[in-house]
Prior knowledge:
Helix content: 55-70%
Strand order of the largest sheet: 1-2
Radius of gyration: 29 Å
Number of domains: 3
Number of strands: 2
Number of helices: 20
Distance between the termini: 111 Å
Amino acid sequence: MSTPDPTPGIPPAWAAMLRQMLGPQADEVIAEIAEHGLQGPDGEPIDLAELASRMGLPEDPAAVQAMVSQMQQVLASGTGPINTDLTHDLARQTAAAEGDPSVTDTERRAVVDALGVAELWLDQATDLPACGGPVRAWSRSEWVEQTLPRWRTLAEPVAGSVSAELARVIGEQHMPEEMGDLAGAMAPMMRQLGSAVFGLQLGQAVGTLSREVLGTTDIGVPLLPGPGTALLPRNVTEFAEGLDVPPDEVRLFLALREAAHARLFTHVGWLQGHLLGVVDAYARGVAIDVDALEDAVRSIDPTDPQGIADALSGGVFAMATSPAQQAALLRLETLLALIEGWVDHVTSVAAEAHLPHTAALRETMRRRRAAGGPAEDIFATLVGLELRPRRSRDAATLWATLAEEGGAAAREAVWDHPDLLPTAEDLDDPTGYRARREAAEADNADLDRALAEIFGQDDEGKRGES
């Protein structure tokens, strides 16, 4: 005697999928479908077996349960627009993919000594004091752990939009509209899938960067919440191997750059918040290329988040064509160039009396920052943003000109307020910046005097009337 079918009219694969996805609510949904059937938007009954075939569901209920269970395991952790658990795990795995030994005592002493010497040399090159934070030597995994919070902050402005749009596209392409209310019930899972995919991409980008970065300021954006300096001894060694320069000299030069960045971001109190605000303003306006997104996910398996992340590696962001986006991008590129140019100039001033290969190392770093690398390309694909100071040479010339005309104090005085920062026009003509600044200050002084006279007359008139 055969066992009666507990779900008459419903293919076993469907029943298995519903129970796996909906949990305790599944029996009620299954009973409703068994009694009344499932109707599409046009009111016509839906053949569930045909629909399952169109969705690519296996016929075996056990296979369906395994498929959905695997997807749920991926989606179970993490909340918000970025699945931070997936980001963390993949970033750590990628960082250690080629081996990631702990920093030895010898390496740590070499880093601490280099950064100590760098601070002494910088004291002679800039009026900005040492940052005063901890000095650290990190493995790649340690760099990931310490910088992930900032990476999440940088990525979140676009992550929510990408996750929501990705969930919509996957739902439309892989869940036929005949599914009606059932598709709506699965919407939270689709949003979690978008969060997971973005988390995987961010983890891949950060993990890849950890194999290339030399310290905490390579990209021009501060990755630590407070003052401090750090170098990655293994990456520094690998970087030095490709140069015809003694490793100790390379380490000292990189320590100078790291310490100069730290001084700038620590003692120019408004700079870090201002820079992150410009990045945020740009990122929030990034447009999603819906056509590219739909093309990327058309042939993927919606139960494979890693496959979706790989499919999106070609980029899903439209070019910034709006005036607001173009203005935000110009502000960002100019500010990054000013930061990099200042560090480039000050580092050169501090190093030239001590390091014979200063000019060669300076040129190497300029080209490295201008060209970027594979990891920066991943980040550009991920959030539609290139963190490359393309005009750092012009900015370095501007800072050098200011120092020649008025000394280090005049150069550093430009950082007193964001309104004093040079513009893209100033980078076009670095030698004319000071004259334009003085002319603007004279105009402001004339306006202040005129306003004072107007208000002074008003005050005198009111006193005369009384």
